[in-house]
């Protein structure tokens, strides 16, 4: 069994820098108020500095080893990457959860089919096996496979559950996720779609199965339940993205506010994304990532609002170290608006 630590970010907003609480990445945010009429770069436009430390999070496998001699259900190791705005951009949560138990059960080595649909729950995504039956995409479903791939020769001898496997999958499935939905990376990160990945069971890996499967999922990282997906998710965010799948929030403060589709009444909207660094840059540290995100989002949201002459409120969902290591460089910016 293995897992990759996934950093947790601070969910806070308002002027008190010491208030806050740890929540999953998609709901992690800080918000602030900026005086109206200040152009980008004005010293009065400085944003909040978030000081609460980030705690690492690991996700152990779920499930017990079978009694000696009992058959072991075929499981998979799984990695979950859910969008931040799903908000803040897809965060890489790797949870390889197949229990490291000895078994003589036959290994399933065949790769799954692309384009298939399933009815997955957040618990399905987190538990130690995912052998969920396929369903017709014309029926209710919450997940759709958009890519089935194979690990390259350079990773064929990697240990089962190696973090290198998760990094490789992120590099393949994240851009494929954006391309599958249509639109661009910013729109995908501000949507309520997310994605999860699955691989072979430990016995199948030992039998040299080297496939992985990436699924679009109908909900953000912190979702308690997934929504039904369209019959096909291909091109779902192309042209004019549907308000029913864009991320908004409803609450006086952004921190802790439940995420809702923008087609529903809301008080916050994920409006832009900003780059906190360049591809070649090393992780700057949590504090700097938060400060940059707040400063850039202050300007970005002001531009989205047309640089109002009155005060306006803004927030951010900040890229995390785990995301950065996987290649992510964007944070998501929120505007306090009912639009």
Please explain how this structure is put together.
This protein has 339 residues and is an alpha+beta fold. The protein has one domain (9-55, 75-99, 109-336). It is 17% helix and 21% strand. The strands form 3 sheets. It has a 7-stranded antiparallel beta sheet. It has a 6-stranded antiparallel beta sheet with strand order 3-14-15-13-11-12. A two-stranded antiparallel sheet has the order 1-2. Strand 4 (78-82) and strand 5 (91-95) form a beta hairpin. The longest helix is centred in the middle third of the chain and has 19 residues, at 163-181. The model is unreliable at 1-28, 37-77 and 84-105 (pLDDT under 50).
What's the alpha carbon Rg, rounded to whole Å?
A: 20 Å
Cα distance, first to last residue? 46 Å
How many beta strands in the DSSP annotation?
15
The main sheet orders its strands as 5-4-9-10-8-6-7
**Number of structurally distinct domains:** 1
What is the count of helical runs? 6
Anisotropy-based shape: globular
Q: List SSEs in N-to-C order.
A: EEEEEEHEEHHEHEEEEHEHE
Strand content: 15-25%
Structural class designation: alpha+beta
């Amino acid at each position: 069994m293995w897992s990759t630590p996934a950093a947790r970010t601070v969910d806070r907003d308002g002027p008190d820098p010491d208030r806050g609480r740890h929540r999953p990445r998609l709901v992690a945010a800080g918000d602030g108020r900026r005086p109206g009429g200040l152009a980008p770069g004005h010293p009065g436009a400085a944003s909040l500095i978030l000081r609460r430390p980030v705690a690492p999070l690991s996700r152990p496998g779920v499930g017990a080893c079978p009694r000696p001699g009992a058959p072991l259900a075929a499981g998979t190791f799984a990695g979950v990457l859910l969008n931040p705005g799903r908000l803040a951009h897809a965060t890489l949560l790797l949870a390889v959860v197949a229990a490291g138990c000895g078994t003589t059960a036959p290994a399933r080595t065949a790769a799954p089919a692309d384009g298939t649909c399933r009815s997955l729950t957040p618990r399905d995504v987190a538990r130690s096996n995912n052998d969920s039956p396929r369903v017709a995409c014309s029926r209710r479903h919450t997940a759709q496979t958009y890519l089935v791939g194979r690990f390259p020769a350079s990773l064929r001898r990697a240990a089962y559950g190696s973090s290198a496997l998760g990094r490789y999958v992120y590099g393949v499935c994240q851009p494929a996720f954006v391309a599958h939905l249509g639109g661009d990376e910013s729109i995908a990160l501000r949507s309520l779609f997310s994605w999860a990945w699955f691989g072979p069971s430990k016995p199948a890996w030992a039998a040299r199965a080297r496939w992985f499967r990436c699924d679009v999922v109908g909900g953000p990282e912190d979702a308690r339940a997934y929504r039904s997906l369209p019959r096909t998710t291909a091109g779902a965010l192309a042209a004019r993205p549907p308000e029913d799948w864009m991320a908004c929030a409803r609450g006086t403060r952004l921190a802790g506010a439940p995420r809702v589709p923008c087609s529903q009444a809301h008080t916050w909207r994920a409006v832009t994304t900003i780059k906190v660094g360049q591809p070649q840059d090393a992780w700057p540290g949590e504090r700097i990532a938060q400060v940059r995100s707040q400063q850039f989002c202050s300007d970005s949201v002001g531009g989205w609002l047309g640089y109002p002459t009155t005060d306006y409120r803004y927030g951010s969902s900040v890229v995390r170290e785990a995301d950065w290591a996987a290649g992510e460089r964007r944070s998501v910016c929120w505007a306090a608006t009912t639009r």
